[in-house]
Every structure is written in structure tokens, then in C-alpha cells.
Specification:
The structure holds two protein chains of two kinds.
Chain A (H helix, E strand, L loop, with lengths): L5 E5 H12 L1 E6 L6 H10 L6 E4 L3 H13 L3 E6 L1 H17 L3 E9 L5 E5 L4 H6 L8 E3 L4 H18 L2 E7 H5 L1 E5 L45 E3 L13 H16 L2 H4 L2 E4 L6 E5 L1 H16 L4 E6 L1 E3 L3 H7 L5 E6 L5 H8 L5 E6 L8 H11 L1
Parallel strand pairs in A: 2-3, 2-4, 4-5, 5-8, 7-8, 12-13, 12-15, 15-16
Antiparallel strand pairs in A: 1-9, 5-6, 7-14, 11-13
Helix pairs in contact in A: 1-2, 1-6, 3-4, 10-13
Chain B lengths: L9 H6 L15 H16 L6 E5 L7 H4 L3 E4 L5 H11 L4 E7 H7 L1 H10 L4 E6 L2 E2 L5 E2 L23 H8 L3 E6 L3 H13 L4 E6 L3 H7 L5 H11 E3 H5 L3 H4 L3 E8 L6 H13 L4
Parallel strand pairs in B: 1-2, 1-3, 3-4, 4-8, 7-8, 9-10
Antiparallel strand pairs in B: 5-6, 7-10
Helix pairs in contact in B: 2-8, 5-6, 6-7
The chains are: A alpha/beta, B alpha/beta.
């Protein structure tokens, strides 16, 4: 294998590297700490490769512009933090309804409201699932290192294109602003997924929202000659607005089934030392790094601690978690909030497994020591 | 032998979306239909292919238009049409992007996107159908509801001041600004055609009747009575020059109000930047 170029990058810069590798050629955004370096990187890099960067008037405009670009055939991204994500959620719902692939990076900081702009948090975990109104199935991925950020950003684009849906990358301030040496991927290192284009000719037979075998409809771009309708109103398979009960059910179940029937394709987690573990730590993002270190220290001291690091947060990896925790009796969920992921873990695991929380929500990082103290407490 | 005379309306039928079940959501006599016809005739005269036109809208009565027409349609969220349209145009600069919006959609919830689209001078044609009221939700006051006018949320008369759409667009940086009414349909059509050919952000304000709500609540009569009012209360730009401010009160000045080719268009400017960077410049 050829020697890879290595660069010292921030997590936010790694996100730009991954996005461009995945084929992102359109970025619209609005400055917000701690995500701004993503916008700065895109403003520098995109013109060099014939891409488009635009700083919009606000986050609502940013998500609107990338959806407009995506239906026009571009892979498009925006990056923000909690307050900006809150402004975006209506149009993220529009992307769910119109089945438009876009990637939204949320570099999490402390909240609610303006909160702690420069401090780390994972308190938007649930927002990534339930942020916008209505019924829908979300996809969210989460790296835990700068190098991971390249890989997970590529994966986010691939999932968005594969499922015709918005995908959120849950970064956090610590990863976004940490610097590490990162290998720059070369062509062929990772598969790149592109939306499926229609093969049917334009006309009455072409239905832009056809319920196909896997529920995902081929996607034309504006200018391709299909002249299709994209609307946030409930619509039939032709794209015509409807309020008929039967057609409403078809649409909503299409949105659900295209995700729920293919969750295995979306799950990604890494299990370490879980086979014989008495206690399993479950975490993502920077909390996963503290958990890994804590488990290593515990193992060296002869305590059997395992770790499940989640890279896919939504859909929540129910089956993988059940399998990996089958032989353990105690689970600790480590997260930088007042307890969000833990609700999912409790929902999924059988009642005879004790599920505990180790939380931090003061804007500081979770330390391995803090996790170890919790291990000691529940042992 | 009977001669088939091609009716002027035939061209309109050519552009209605096949397969769409009509009627529309618009009330009989609504001004939106006249504006739609004017847009169709302008596009037809300019000889644009249907495939190169994208019609973008937000939420409201007028915003239903893209669904009825055989162009690419992007019917978006309330107030955000211009932001979505910015994404479409910037991604595919060769496309003709038409935004259809209303006074509530463009100026209340979408006011921020409106001024910034003007400022960027991005090559989008915005047709703002101004009926001075929220029609779809049932007749509430809007940012263009005149002083003291009645609506379902100004039952004792409007205490707020209203926007002059064209002044706002010009001040914000739009490079074509025109106003017409649905009474002056041929002029409206010409103005939309000029706006479409203009390179830069073009705004056409189409004064339209909502006799169902605005007309009824303000005792302006039915659709025909309101059209007659548009006729009587409109003055051309030439005539307006000879009138005093007092005389112009309660009048609509119609025609091309502002046109400039001095400012560069956003997508073209960005392409220049891309070309410069490709040559290693900064």
C-alpha cells in the first residue's frame, strides 16, 4: 500500500477532508463556535476543486441552501452547534419528508440556549433523533478521534446517499478542537456511495417518490429533464400533495421502512474486552476515549471491564448491544450530559442487567478517573 | 371550413403540470392565477425550455404555484424559498430560477432571506404577489397590510406600519425592481420577462386581489371591484414624476422602478474566484 500523506489536523479540519473525499462539493453555513473551522476549511478548499461555498444569513438559510443544492445534484453539507442546529430542525424535517440527502455536522457544546459556547457536551444526543416535529427515523454517526472524523464523515455522506435522508454527525468540542496526525485517504481507500439515478424515462411512469423494493426511490436532479415536484406537504408517489389517509400511510411507512428494515447496514460499534467483562462501559465521542482508558487501567488492575464504543447513535444499535451485553450483569453508560443515551440502553437491555450512569455536564471532559470511580462504586 | 384560432389561453394550458388534478386551492377570481399566466407567457415568449426552469416557493396561497406548473418544483418551508433557491441557483447557475412568494412569506418570516438575496444580487427572479394579507390561514394582517386596514388579527384597524416592497428591495441591493398589478396583466408579463432576462436579483411586486379576505374585511368588493380599484389607483412611473407626494398617497406607482447592470452577479463573481484560484491566484 502506498504511503499516505499525513497531516496535523483539528477534528473540524478532518471533517472537511472526509467530506471532500466523499464528494461534497457544496457547503452553506453560518459561523458558530465550536464548528466554525469547518466553514473556514470549506471556504478555502471548495473553490480549488470547483466546488461552491456560501456563507448564508443564518442557519435556517444554510440548511435550506444545501437542500436546494442537493436536489440540484450536489453532495452538500453544513456545520453548526446546538443553537444553530435548533434553528435548522424545521428544514431538517423538510429533508426527511422530501428524502433529500444532506449532511449536518453538530459540534456539540453546552446548553440549553447559548449555554457554554467553548465547552464540550453531548447534550444534543436526543435532539439528533427527535429534533424536528413529526414521525421519522433519524441517522446520526459519531466519531471519537480526529482520525475517526475523516472516516465517519465519509460514512455520513454514504448513508445519506444510500438512504436519501439527512444524516447528522455528532461531533463534540473536544474532538473538533483536538489536533492529531491524520492519514489523508487516497482514492480507493473507502467506498463512495452515490444516489441512484432514475433509469425510467421522464413521463407519467416516472414517480420521484416510488416505493421500490428497498423503499428508496431513484433520485433525479433538477435539470435532468424530469421536472419533478419536491414538497414538504405529504405527497403521493408522483410527488403530488395529498391528504388522503391511504397515501399518507404509504409515505410515512416508506420513510420508516427504508431505515428500520436496513438498520444492520447502519450500525457501527466497536467492542473491546466485552467477552468476559463483568462490567461493560457504553459511550461515544470523547466520552468513549475516557471509557477506553479507564477500561485499560481496570484490566491492568485485574478488573474485567469491557467497552462498547458507538459510532452509530441513531438508529440506536439495539441488537448489537443485546448481543454484546448477553453475558454481563452490569453496564455503565458514560456521557457528557444529564443522562440521554442511558435511556436507550435501559430500554434495550433486559431488566436483570443493572444499568448505571456516569455523567458530566459542567463543560469539562470526562476523565478516566471519574469512570474508574464509577466502576469501583458499582462493582 | 372552420378555422382554429389559437386562443391566448392555450399557451397557459401547455404549461400546466400533466396529471395534476385541478382545481387549484385558489378561490375563484384570485389574482394568483393572473400572475401564473403572466409568468407562463413570459417564459414562453423568451423560449426557455421547461427543463431549465426551477420554480421555488415557500408557504401560502401563492406558494402553491410550482405544483401546478410543468417546471421543476421546489415547494419549501414558510419564508425560506429564497434561501432554498439560492442553493439551487448556486449549484446549477445555468438554470432559470423563479421564486414565487407572498407578502407574509417573503417579508415577515422570510424577511431576512429577502434582504440577503437582494444584497447578494444572485440571479433569481422573485415574483412577490402582494395581496396585503395572509390568505391561506384565513385573513390575518401581514407586513404589507396598510395602516388602519382590517384583517382577522387587526379587527380594530392595523396599528402597525407597512413595508414598501420595492423600496426595501432596492435599498437591500436588488438590481431590477418593478411593480405591476393583476389588472395590468400584459405589463406584468413584460415586467416578468424583463426580470427573467436581467442578470442579477430581480424583484417584481404583483399587486393582487384577495377579495375573499382583504376585500371583504375592508369593503373593497369582489374580484372585479378590486381589479377596477387597481386600475384607478395605479399610476405609471412617468406620471408619478409629475405628482406630489400628497397626490401619490394611496397610489401604486407601476412600471420599472429601478434597473442597474453595474453590480456583478453573485454566481458569476464566484466563478471568477474559482477560475482565479485554479490558476494559483488568491
Amino acid at each position: 500500500m502506498a504511503e499516505r500523506e499525513r497531516k496535523l489536523l483539528q477534528g473540524n479540519q478532518a471533517c472537511v477532508v472526509g467530506a471532500i473525499y466523499a464528494g461534497m462539493r457544496f457547503y452553506a453555513g453560518y459561523p458558530i463556535t465550536p464548528s466554525t473551522e469547518v466553514a473556514e476549511g470549506c471556504s478555502r478548499e471548495l473553490p480549488r476543486i470547483g466546488g461552491r461555498f456560501i456563507q448564508m444569513e443564518d442557519e435556517i438559510g444554510s440548511i435550506a441552501a444545501i437542500i436546494g443544492a442537493s436536489v440540484s445534484g450536489k453532495k452538500a453539507m453544513t456545520a453548526t452547534s446546538g443553537p444553530g442546529y435548533s434553528l435548522m430542525v424545521e428544514n431538517i424535517g423538510y429533508a426527511y419528508m422530501t428524502e433529500t440527502p444532506v449532511v449536518i455536522v453538530n459540534v456539540q457544546r453546552g446548553g440549553p440556549s447559548t449555554g457554554l459556547p467553548t465547552k464540550v457536551s453531548q447534550s444534543d444526543t436526543m435532539q439528533a433523533r427527535w429534533g424536528t416535529h413529526g414521525d421519522y427515523n433519524a441517522i446520526a454517526v459519531a466519531p471519537s478521534t480526529v482520525a475517526d472524523t475523516v472516516v465517519e464523515t465519509i460514512r455520513a455522506f454514504n448513508l445519506a446517499e444510500r438512504f436519501r435522508t439527512p444524516v447528522t454527525i455528532l461531533l463534540d468540542e473536544v474532538i473538533a478542537h483536538s489536533r492529531s496526525m491524520v492519514e489523508i485517504p487516497q482514492e480507493g481507500d473507502f467506498p463512495i456511495v452515490d444516489r441512484i439515478k432514475p433509469t425510467k424515462p421522464a413521463g407519467r411512469d416516472f414517480m420521484p417518490f416510488e416505493v421500490t423494493e428497498n423503499f428508496v426511490s431513484p433520485m433525479a436532479s433538477y435539470g435532468d429533464g424530469y421536472r419533478f415536484i419536491v414538497t414538504g406537504l405529504t405527497h403521493d408517489q408522483h410527488g403530488f400533495t395529498t391528504n388522503r389517509a391511504d397515501e399518507t400511510v404509504v409515505k410515512l411507512e416508506k420513510l420508516r421502512n427504508k431505515i428500520t428494515r436496513y438498520e444492520e447496514e447502519i450500525y457501527k460499534q466497536e467492542a473491546r474486552w466485552t467477552d468476559d467483562a463483568d462490567i461493560i462501559l457504553v459511550a461515544y465521542g470523547s466520552a468513549a476515549r475516557a471509557s477506553l482508558q479507564a477500561a485499560q487501567i481496570a484490566r491492568e488492575a485485574g478488573v474485567k471491564v469491557g467497552v462498547i464504543q458507538l459510532y452509530t447513535i441513531w438508529p440506536f444499535p439495539e441488537k448489537p448491544l443485546l448481543d454484546l451485553c448477553a453475558k454481563t450483569k452490569k453496564v455503565i453508560v458514560a456521557e457528557l450530559n444529564m443522562g440521554q443515551l442511558v435511556h436507550e440502553v435501559r430500554r434495550v437491555l433486559p431488566g436483570d442487567i443493572d444499568v448505571h450512569s456516569v455523567l458530566r455536564y459542567d463543560g469539562e471532559i470526562l476523565t478516566p478517573l471519574q469512570v474508574l470511580e464509577k466502576v469501583d462504586e458499582v462493582m | 371550413m372552420a378555422t382554429v384560432v389559437k386562443q391566448k389561453s392555450d399557451v397557459v394550458l401547455d404549461y400546466l403540470r400533466p396529471g395534476k388534478k385541478f382545481p387549484s386551492v385558489w378561490c375563484p377570481g384570485c389574482g394568483n392565477g393572473t400572475v401564473m399566466s403572466a409568468i407562463i407567457r413570459a417564459v414562453d415568449k423568451l423560449g426557455y425550455s421547461k427543463d431549465e426552469v426551477v420554480m421555488v416557493s415557500g408557504i401560502g396561497c401563492s406558494s402553491r404555484m410550482p405544483i401546478y406548473l410543468d417546471f421543476s418544483a421546489l415547494h419549501t418551508t414558510h419564508g425560506r424559498a429564497l434561501a432554498f433557491a439560492t442553493g439551487v441557483k448556486f449549484a446549477q447557475p445555468h438554470m432559470k430560477v423563479i421564486v414565487v412568494t407572498g407578502d407574509g412569506d417573503a417579508l415577515a418570516i422570510g424577511g431576512n432571506h429577502f434582504i440577503h438575496a437582494c444584497r447578494r444580487n444572485i440571479d433569481i427572479t422573485a415574483v412577490l404577489i402582494n395581496n396585503n394579507i395572509y390568505g391561506m390561514t384565513g385573513g390575518q394582517g401581514s407586513p404589507t397590510t396598510p395602516d388602519a386596514a382590517f384583517s382577522t388579527t387587526t379587527p380594530y384597524g392595523n396599528a402597525e406600519k407597512h413595508f414598501d416592497v420595492c423600496d426595501l428591495a432596492k435599498a437591500a441591493g436588488a438590481t431590477y425592481v418593478g411593480r405591476s398589478t393583476v389588472y395590468h396583466a400584459p405589463q406584468l408579463e413584460k415586467q416578468i420577462a424583463t426580470a427573467l432576462e436581467h442578470r442579477g436579483f430581480a424583484l417584481v411586486e404583483a399587486i393582487a386581489n384577495c377579495h375573499t379576505y382583504f376585500g371583504r374585511l375592508n369593503r373593497q368588493g369582489d374580484a372585479v371591484a378590486m381589479l377596477n380599484m387597481f386600475k384607478e389607483r395605479s399610476v405609471t412611473t412617468a406620471k408619478a414624476k409629475e405628482m406630489t407626494e400628497e397626490e401619490l398617497k394611496d397610489k401604486w406607482v407601476i412600471g420599472t422602478l429601478y434597473e442597474s447592470t453595474e453590480k456583478s452577479e453573485f454566481c458569476e463573481e464566484y466563478q471568477k474566484l474559482v477560475d482565479r484560484v485554479a490558476k494559483g491566484g488568491r
